[in-house]
Amino acid sequence: MHVFAGADGAVTFLIACTVKITVILSVAFLVVALLGRNSSATRHHVWAASVTAALILPICVALLPAWRSTALSSAAAAFGTARGNAPNAEAPPIPTVVVHAVAGSAELSELAFAILFGWILGFAFFGLRLVVGLSRLRWLGARSKPLFEDDWIRDALNISRAFGISRPARLLECRNALAMPLTYGFFSPVIILPAGAAHWNEARRGIVLSHELAHIARNDWLVQICAELVRALYWFHPLVWLVAARLRQESERACDDAVLLSGVAPSHYATQLLDLARTLENSGRAWSTALAIARPTNLERRFAAMVNPFVNRRRLSLKAKFLIPFLAALVLLPLSALRLPAQQRAGKTSGTIHDPSGATIANATVVMSNHDANTIDMTSTDREGNFSFTGLPAGKYELQVFKPGFQVYRQAEVSLDAGSDLNSVFTLQVGALSEHLFVVPEDSERPVVTKKTDGKPSRLAVGGNVQAAKIISKVPPVYPEKAKSAGVQGTVVLHAVIGVDGRPLSLRVMNAQIDPDLAKSAVEAVSQWRYTPTLLNGEPIEVDTTIDIVYSLQP
Question: What is the Cα–Cα distance from 259 to 244, expressed in whole angstroms?
Fold first, then answer.
């Protein structure tokens, strides 16, 4: 997960999320424009997908790993065969790290704190407004009485079956005779009707129930709450307000289309809505989190769409139902993982890689891993052995250097501060060799000595720099008679240094608990082995080797 350092990190995160939701919402506007004459249900699904993506984007940004590679293609070339450079001045035997710290800007921190404080105030205001709206809805529902009229219950059940609603909706009648019918709730949806609604005629009853139950069938209230949450988070973003308004408009028009598809005449439906808008109070401000049937704000456009015979009123197709969220995910996930330049960055991170002779190493892969932020940055050294990262986000990193033929270099913690430069010089040590032998008694059907490899070839040329030792003379160990008679088995682990003349030096038994006869047999045999020396830039060098010799009585 991301770890943010104070106000600067929080503001950086907010800026990055703002830029990314701008892209998401802009794509939604483009898709809606391309849909042209598609139904309101389809357009609403696009807006709903964009709102959902904007809501979960901060979570995805915080949890998904980010990948930025300054020279990913060059890193692959590290496993090729490229020539190194002539030796430079002798490098220090122990890697040194030189950090040139640059003090952070106090003015920038103060500005970041002011921006963060302003965002918190806006979020608190709109979040409180959302909480108050939800609380007032619960208060209104608690003060309303259930509507048990047979006609209402029967029509509600029939329309619910037609819309495929599995969760029953509660019908409530409030005390206000002028209250606008509205719907809220997801798991336990509620339809609140004005006082005296029990005496409505069949036509009005059917229209109101069809419209409100269409909201429930389409889960419009839950989507609208998501839009309100996004608006609270990004209250300063004009596109968020536009999308929230479009979402509510398309929600009402899609429910209008559902009512008209049920067989209600457009003129009759428009007349009923107009009568409701004239006689009942507008609850738009008081109940911002509810879905009201006749908000005056977009009633004229709805009337125009109702009487237009060429309007596409089709329900959302199964294909579009799954395809639109899938496409939204295709935009959301890569965008979440993308690291933007606006994020807080350190200065230039650079260095030079040398081998033990002092020569620079070309095409070495350098990896900077930020485990807190779950990011990986890669680059490779140039012909002079230099590498650089420009503007890495501030934080703690693990630095690793890979070059075939050399030991992997690791530095567990490298701290990059905002505005700080880091310049490093590393010396890679030549990689150690290993041998694995299997020894059985001479009278066994199995060959006396067999060789296994650890996946490394016996001769390895890397970039013209390192040429690994190759064994040219091997005396096979002999199973000691005393050990064989006593049924002794085991593995002798030897460590040696292959000298510049190819002779094993400093032979040492690593596992002291092994049988002395087996250890003596292994040492006597390996001391007679001969290698071609390991060459570094054409010059012989000493290199460590590990030899495992397995003595087994089983053929």
Answer: 23
* 228 and 372 inside one domain: no
Q: For residues 234 and 242, what is the distance between their CA atoms, to the nearest angstrom?
A: 12
Token pair of 330, please? 């295709």
User: At a CB cut-off of 8 Å and minimum separation 6, what does 255 contact?
Assistant: 211, 214, 215, 218, 220
DSSP code at position 198:
G
Pairing state of beta strands 182-184 and 170-173? unpaired
Q: Which amino acid is at 449?
A: V
Distance CA 444, CA 300 (A): 98
Secondary structure of 438-456 as H, E, C letters: EECCCCCCCCCEEEECCCC
What pTM value is reported for the model? 0.58
The per-residue pLDDT for range 195-241, each reduced to its tens digit, is 888 888 988 899 999 999 999 999 999 999 999 999 999 999 999 99
DSSP H/E element including 395 = strand 395-402
Examine the domain organization and report whether 156 and 124 are in the same domain: yes
For 159-187, how does the pLDDT look when each residue is reduced to its tens digit (9 = 90+)?
999 998 988 889 999 988 888 888 988 88
Are 409 and 424 within 8 A, CB to CB? no
The verdict on 56 and 87 lying in the same domain is no
Ramachandran region, residue 378 (left: φ > 0; alpha: ψ -120 to 50; beta: rest): beta
Scan for tokens 């609208």, then name that residue. 224
Q: Choose the final residue of a domain: 337, 353, 370.
A: 337
For 474-484, letters b (16+ CB in 10 Å) and e give beebebbeebb
Is 3 contained in some domain? no
